[in-house]
Amino acid sequence: MKELKSFASDNNSGAHPAIMEAVVKANIGHLKSYGEDEMSIDTDEVFKEFFGSQARIHYVTTGTAANVLGLRAVTHTYNSVLCAEQAHINNDECGAPEAFGGIKLVPIPSQDGKLTPGAIAPYLGHVGFVHASQPKVISITQPTELGKLYTLKEIEDIVEFAHDRDLLVHLDGARMANACAALNCSFFDMTTALDVDLVSFGGTKNGCLMGEAVIFLNPDIGQGFPYLRKQAMQLVSKMRFVSAQLERYLRDDLWLINARQANSMATRLAEKAGAIEGVTIKGDVDCNALFAHIPPEATEILLEKYYFYIWDEHDHTVRWMTSWATTEDMVDEFVNDIRKAVEAVK
What residues form the membrane-spanning segments (predicted)? Predict the structure, then answer.
C-alpha cells in the first residue's frame, strides 16, 4: 500500500503506538460488556481527575455521535441550537443533528468560526413565541473550524451570557487537546472552571483509534443519555477497547505531548512556507491548522504528490493541517516541494 503524504487532516494519521498497545493489552480474558468492565469504570475515574468529580462520562466512537447525542440529551424537538455558520455540526455532519436529534440548528455568521454574546443576542428575539423554535444550547467549537482559538475569558463570557438566559453551553472539543496545549491550560480550566455544561471530548484526531466521549459537567442535565446512546447504536458491547484508548491517551500526558507536536509542526510549516515568495499564510496559526494562498497552478502540482484540501476555490486558499505524527522532515520536504511548485509556475 502506497503511503499517503497528507497535510489534509489529522484524521489521516494513524493511531499512536501507545494507544495500539493499550488496545492489545485490553484484549485479555473475559470482561463484562457494555461499559460495565473494570477498564471502563477505571477510565471514568481518570476522566474525573481531569474534569472534576461531578463529571459523567459516556464513551462513543465518533465525534458526530458525541455532538449529536450530547445535544439530543439536553434538548426537546422544539428547541434550537445556536452555532457559528462554520460549525462542524452545521456543515460536516450530513444533517445528523436534524435527522437523528430532531434539533433545529441556527447558524450565526462569523468571520473566524467564533461566537460572541453580541453576535448571539439578535437570534434570541423569539424566546417565548409559540410559533418559533426555542433556543436551548449555544454550541462552540474549540478550536474553531478555521483554526482559531477562544480565550478562556471569551468562553467565560459566553457561558455567563447563556446562563443568564437559561441556555446551556456545549463545547465541541474534537481538537480540545490542541487548544489546551496552545493556551497552556488544562481541560478543567477550559470547561469545568468556566461552568461549561457539556463537552464532546475528542481523542481520534490526536492519536486514538476511535475514542470519543460525551461529558456532562452540569449535574442537572443528560440523565437519559444511556438510553439515547443505546437507541443510536453507540453502546459498544466490548467497550473496554474504547475506554482503554482514552485511559492511555490521558495517562502520562500523552494527549498533551501529541497536541504540542501537531501544533509545533503547523508553526514550523507556516514559518517556512510563508517565507516563500508567492505563498501567503492567512492570519495567525493558533493550533495545528493553517490556511494559505498559493497559485492555483502550483496547487495542482502539489496535489500530484500530497493530499490536502482546497478550502476556497474562488481565492485559491488551501488548508494544511498537521498531526501528532507529523515530523520536521515531513514538513521540510513539503516546504521544499511547495517552493519548487511555486517557482515552476512563475
Answer: none
CB 220 within 8 Å of CB 74: no
Give the pLDDT score at 135: 98
Task: Encode pLDDT of 215-230 as tens digits.
Answer: 999 999 999 999 999 9
Distance between start and end Cα atoms, the chain: 35
Cα–Cα distances (Å) from 279 to 138, 162, 273, 313, 340, in that order, read 37, 41, 7, 16, 12
At what angle are helices 254-274 and 240-250 packed, to 10 degrees? 70
Is the model's pLDDT at 122 over the cut of 90?
yes
Q: Which residues of 145-178 are buried (b: 16+ CB within 10 A; e: fewer)?
A: bbbbbbeeebbebbbebbeeeebbbbbbbbbbbb
CA distances from 17 to 186, 202, 218, 290, 325 (A): 24, 18, 34, 26, 10
C-alpha cell at 5: 503524504
CB 72 within 8 A of CB 101: yes
HSE at residue 7, side-chain half, CA atoms within 13 A, is 30
Beta bridge partners of 173: 201
State pLDDT tens for residues 179-224. Answer: 999 999 999 999 999 999 999 999 999 999 999 999 999 999 999 9
- Residue 91 pLDDT more than 90? yes
Q: How far is CA 336 from CA 147, 282, 319, 323, 339, in A?
A: 24, 20, 17, 19, 5
| Structural domains of the chain in order of their starting residue, each with its CATH number | 16-253 (3.40.640.10), 255-344 (3.90.1150.10)
